[in-house]
Write a structure and sequence with these properties.
The chain is an alpha+beta fold. It is built from 6 helices and 19 strands. It binds zinc ion. The site of zinc ion has 7 residues, from loops.
């Protein structure tokens, strides 16, 4: 749809450019500079429109829709994805991680807990658009979900007060709430999640709370190594294991995902790669093309497929 919009705008621009008086020139001679101008205007107009679209609908290429229904809804992760971490802001200036991402009490803790006090300012980690501002008394408490232009979604839980509205645009560093102890939480803290395509990734692979910094300008996400990197990040930047006050923060957050799968299973189909398969053999089998597969999964044609890898097709 955006492309239609773009085309229309480009056309309007073109027509107005063509109307520039060109006395005494033959049509071919004046075509060339117009083409040149057209290109320049074109790219300015296009990049402007793309910027606007990006603000209104951040990371639209990664997410099928924009809704305020689900805090998160796991979809298939890209094999590789570059996440731009420049222009970040630490969500809190507090440096003490009280609980790591990962297994905890036999369940998965999908975020990182950072000690904050009631009333501490919580800030947007990147610029983006607020997708949800809700209360969940059995889990996140008062929480905010933001979708960012870099592809990530961040979730901030257990706050005492939310300071933004749904669908509001925010800049990195904008105050979005105040630290608290709402929901399933004992002891005020910030539960902070970073998700890509709805899948929780260890915030410690991006953020170093102790040093109040990101780990680099970019984070190159490779699905094949993210478990390993997540463990490493816990060791390097987390609280470490064996803490005895972990029970304090037992706010595990496997929740508020109200039967979201239906839409996806209807619209998108998945193929699980088996040994020996290639993109073209899968394309043939599924009645699609290699190009379509690559586009849909955001992969290159020469990627090495791994058995067990999931590809979208439809
Ligand atoms: Zn937590």
């Amino acid at each position: 749809m955006i492309f239609n919009k773009l085309k229309k705008l480009a056309l309007v621009t073109f027509v107005s450019l063509s109307a520039i008086p060109t006395m005494g020139q033959d049509i071919l001679a004046r075509q060339a500079p117009i083409d040149k101008k057209m290109k320049a205007v074109d790219s300015v107009v296009l990049s402007r429109l793309v910027q606007i679209e990006q603000l209104e609908n951040p990371a639209a290429d990664l997410y099928e829709d924009w809704n305020n229904k689900y805090a998160h809804k796991a979809t298939v992760l890209p094999d590789t994805f570059r996440i731009d971490l420049r222009n970040f802001c630490m969500p809190t200036t507090n440096r003490v991680v009280t609980s790591n991402f990962g297994r905890r009490w036999g369940r998965q803790h999908k975020g990182i807990d950072v000690k904050v006090y009631i009333g501490d300012t919580i800030r947007a980690a990147f610029s983006g658009k607020v997708r949800m501002v809700r209360y969940d008394g059995k889990g996140y408490g008062k929480y905010v979900v933001i979708r960012h232009g870099n592809g990530l979604e961040t979730i901030y839980g257990h706050m005492s007060k939310q300071l933004v509205d749904e669908d509001q645009l925010v800049e990195a560093g904008d105050p979005i709430g105040l630290g608290g102890n709402t929901g399933r939480s004992t002891g005020s803290h910030l539960h902070f999640e970073t998700r890509l395509c709805g899948v929780a990734l260890n915030p410690a692979i991006f953020f170093d709370f102790r040093n109040q910094d990101v780990v680099g300008d970019y984070y190159m996400f490779y699905r094949s190594r993210h478990d390993h990197e997540s463990e490493l990040a816990n060791r390097l930047r987390g609280a470490g294991s064996g803490r005895d006050d972990m029970a304090q923060n037992d706010d595990d957050v496997e929740l508020s995902v109200a039967a979201p799968e239906a839409k996806y299973t209807k619209d998108v189909k998945f193929h699980k790669v088996t040994a020996g398969e290639t993109l073209s053999s899968i394309a043939r089998k599924r009645g699609t093309t290699v190009d379509a597969l690559c586009k849909l999964n955001r992969i290159g044609k020469r990627i090495r497929l791994m058995p067990g890898q999931i590809l979208k097709y439809n």
